[in-house]
Amino acid sequence: MKHNFGAGPCILPKEVFEQASQAVIDFNGTGLSILEISHRSKEFEEVVVETEQLVRELLNVPSGYSILFLQGGASQQFAMVPMNLLPADGKAAYLDTGVWATKAAKEAKRVGQVEIVASSSDQNYNYIPKLYTIPTDAAYFHYTSNNTIYGTEVFDRPATQVPVVVDMSSDILSRNINIADYDLIYAGAQKNMGPAGVTLVIIKDELFGKSGRTNPMIFDYEAHAKAGSMYNTPPVFSIYVSMLNLRWLKAKGGIDVIEQENIIKARTLYDEIDRNPFFRGTAAVEDRSRMNVTFVMENAELEAEFLALAKERNLIGIKGHRSVGGFRASIYNALTISSINALVDTMREFEERKK
Ligand code: PMP
């Protein structure tokens, strides 16, 4: 058995893969593959409705918010957010907590005026800036709730009166959030929601048309909302597999249950990193992510050897991103505690060998 610690696309529950593969052959007894049915068919309309319903239910989405399933990844949202929310004479506020946050701000700068309220680039993004001021006249404030590369996470929504826009690509559906605290949430599906190819957007309807710009329709949130995510052909299979994965999450007991599991998984791994003299965590302790655990070896020369042992023990995808080095264990919803234990055991085995 492989333990997949990949950062995304990443592990999904085995039963989801099994159900998805069955639907590729025969979707719901229709005698047709999910890959060949019309996106306008009644069968697929039911899939979109159920997927939206599951998102609403699992995340407790209040009325007044639209749920969209778009393409183009989170990166397309970097552009769509300012196109839809940033007026020509306005400015947007961004918190810079890493590569993805920087890219989001950069894209917004192509559209209009951007103010970076704070950055943790001075320490290679190993912490979340806390003391900063969000201008009250900003059209919106944007931040990344989980920094997939650096292993830091923002657990509390920063206090501000301006609309709050969050990139939750790598921690959506991993913990409870109060949707009413946010104005726009977006997330590439390929971590905790489903396979790559679909992007979830949860947007307060009040934001439609806020920028006053005339955008191409394909980049207009309202156009997608009005069409029920069927403005054009949606990513049928990605939405379908997301639905299966959301069903799995619901059957498990929903966000409360997965959040507790995620807390225990993260704590188990961080405890070993802190205990084992060969390893050291890279993120500030109070900002440690529950989804992406970044760590290095005290002696960097041993890293290749540990990586080789990890491979022998079927631990996949733990090599760190090049901008941090060392290791990154992505421990998304579908990764079980037994995979965490396999990694911890391997770290202990390495310690025994070396001491
Ligand atoms: N934001 C975050 C937090 C991410 O982790 C990623 C990708 N890993 C992106 C944005 C970019 O997503 P995409 O590749 O879907 O455009």
How much helicity do the residues have?
A: 25-40%
Give the cofactors and ligands: 4'-deoxy-4'-aminopyridoxal-5'-phosphate
CATH-assigned homologous superfamily of the largest domain: Type I PLP-dependent aspartate aminotransferase-like (Major domain)
If strands are numbered along the chain, what order do they take across the biggest sheet? Answer: 2-10-9-8-5-3-4
Output the helix-strand order: EHHEHEHEEEEEEEHHHEEHEEH
Secondary structure elements and pairings:
Layout (H helix, E strand, L loop, with lengths): L2 E2 L9 H12 L16 H17 L6 E6 L2 H13 L5 E6 L2 H13 L1 E7 L21 E4 L1 E2 L4 E2 L10 E4 L16 E5 L10 E6 L16 H6 L9 H17 L2 H21 L3 E3 L10 E6 L5 H10 L2 E2 L10 E4 L6 H18 L1
Parallel strand pairs: 1-13, 3-4, 3-5, 5-8, 8-9
Antiparallel strand pairs: 2-10, 6-7, 9-10, 11-12, 12-14
Helix pairs in contact: 1-6, 2-6, 3-4, 7-9
The structure holds 4'-deoxy-4'-aminopyridoxal-5'-phosphate.
Q: In words, what does this structure look like?
A:
- With 355 residues, this protein is α/β, with parallel strands linked by helices.
- The protein has two domains: 14-252, Type I PLP-dependent aspartate aminotransferase-like (Major domain) (Aspartate Aminotransferase, domain 2, 3-Layer(aba) Sandwich); 254-354, Aspartate Aminotransferase, domain 1 (Alpha-Beta Complex), CATH 3.90.1150.10.
- The chain contains nine helices and 14 strands.
- The chain has helices at residues 14-25, 42-58, 73-85, 99-111, 221-226, 236-252, 255-275, 303-312, 337-354, and strands spanning 3-4, 65-70, 91-96, 113-119, 141-144, 146-147, 152-153, 164-167, 184-188, 199-204, 279-281, 292-297, 315-316, 327-330.
- Helix 3 runs parallel beside helix 4 and helix 7 packs parallel to helix 9 (337-354).
- The longest helix has 21 residues, at 255-275.
- The chain is globular.
- The protein starts with a strand and ends with a helix.
- Bound molecules: 4'-deoxy-4'-aminopyridoxal-5'-phosphate.
- L-glutamate binds at residue 40.
- One of its GO terms (cellular component) is cytoplasm.
